Amino acid sequence: MHTPGRALVVGVTGIIGQTLSRQLVELGWEVYGLSRSGTNAPGVTSLRADLSDPASLRAALAGTRPELVAITAWTRMATEAENIAVNGGAVRNLLAALEDEKSLKHVALMTGLKHYLGPFEAYATGVMADTPFREEEPRLSSPNFYYAQEDELFDSAARNGFTWSVHRSHTVFGFATGNAMNMVLTISAYATICKERGLPFVFPGSEAQWNSVTDVTDADLLAEQIIWAGTHEAGQDEAFNIANGDVFRWRWLWPQIAAYFGLEWEGFEGEPRTLVEGMTGAREIWAEIAERHNLVEPDIDRVASWWHTDGDLGRNIEVLTDMNKSRKAGFLGFRDTRDSFFHYVEEYRKARILP
């Protein structure tokens, strides 16, 4: 059994960072949480630094001596070249700042299915592997900030003698605000606004996503895999997909979400009816809803990420992952996707983020 030590969670306020730090604390780890804004999570020592600023990183991390590091943060830029410079540079700066500590045993990097689908600029348009995506597939030819992050990780591990793992998640279901990847909260905010305006709950995505089999990733499950990889030899120096382990079709789940919120629903009809277009004016409507229900977050931009959910639901190909590599290595965790969705909706309601 691995004895808990010191862990550093980079991006501790995010949708993965929050649940990962909580799990580590519950397991007895001494946990440091790094972000630009700081955190007040129970049991987590808050560190503030900018990943683009090597001097601030060295100052913030001095004396922390983490054994396990999880990198769960990224910054979206206007072009993939900028994404590579900023996000690849963030991994390089972080690991360089920790070199003098000489404490690292394992570094986990969270990426995602853009590893197989390509970057936002060429999303799902290049030569792609058949589904379900498997970890041994070669990289695409297009530039990709995930590849740049991996290369920085591999280079530092070779020089400094620590093990690594890469965790390729699908769309994440979890608990966070102000996070681009938050589909549960985005869909729930959309449903809440539909009810406020007396509108049907229209599926905003493509015919392929409405009808095809897909999967998603529960944030708690991803955190469990990161901890497993950092504490088990079979999880080290490997890349792993991470999804719930079940599959579903949105045409099956969408009516159930509509029923939960008391809405009439519409499926795909002719072409995508995007959230970016349909939620024009949502800022004012949400502010009114938040005031009437005494919600803690009146800013819709911190609640919903219309563009990111449109991207996931608008893909014109089937997208799902193979989990056999992880299972064969010994990670057997799973989640029921329907239960996962409604679990997080209830958590948002308890936290007064949703009415």
UniProtKB/TrEMBL annotation:
Sequence ranges assigned to domain PRISE-like Rossmann-fold in this UniProt record: 81-355
CDD domains linked to this entry: 5beta-POR_like_SDR_a
Domain of life according to the entry: Bacteria
Name of one Pfam family that matches: PRISE
Cross-referenced PANTHER family: 3-OXO-DELTA(4,5)-STEROID 5-BETA-REDUCTASE (PTHR32487)
Protein's UniProt name: SDR family oxidoreductase
Lineage: Bacteria, Bacillati, Actinomycetota, Actinomycetes, Micrococcales
